[in-house]
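Suppose a colleague, Dr. K., hands you the sequence of a protein chain of 154 amino acids and asks what its three-dimensional shape might be. Before reaching for any lab equipment, you can write down a predicted structure in C-alpha cell form. Begin with the sequence itself:
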Amino acid sequence: MNPVTAAHIHLFLCHVPVMAILFGLGWLAFGLWRGSREIQKAALGMFIVAAVLAVPSYLTGEPASGTIKGLPGFSERILEQHQASAGVALAGCIALGILALAGLIHYRGRAVAGWFSVLLLVAALVVGVLMARTANLGGQVRHSEIRPYDAEAE
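The predicted structure, expressed as C-alpha cells, is then:
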C-alpha cells in the first residue's frame, strides 16, 4: 500500500467544501421554495461547514504541490492560476460562512427573513462558481487531458 502524501490529504479535503456549497445551495433553494425555515437553517449550517473545511483544504495545497512538481503532465502555470484562485475562493467561502453563522445567531428561534435567504443564495452562487473554478484548475494542474488548451504552449 502506498503511503498517504500531502497530495492525498489535499485531494480528500478539497472536495468537501465544494460539495458542501453545492448541497447548501440546493437546500437553501428548496427551503425557500417550500417555505421551510428548518431546511434554510440546515443550508446555513452547510455553508459554515464549507467555510471551516475550506481552511485546511487551502493550507494543504502548498505541501501537495511539492509532491507533484516535475511529474508527467504537471503545469506550473496552471498551478499558479489554481493558487491565486484558491485564495479568492477561500476568502469568499469564509465570508459566506461568517454571514451564515451571523444569520443562524440572529434568526435563532424564528424564521430566516426572505431577503436574507435570497442574499445568501446569491452569495452562495458566487462562491460556488469560485470554488468550482478553483477545483477545475486544480484538476488541470496535472491532468493535461482536461485542459481546454495547451497551457505550456503560451
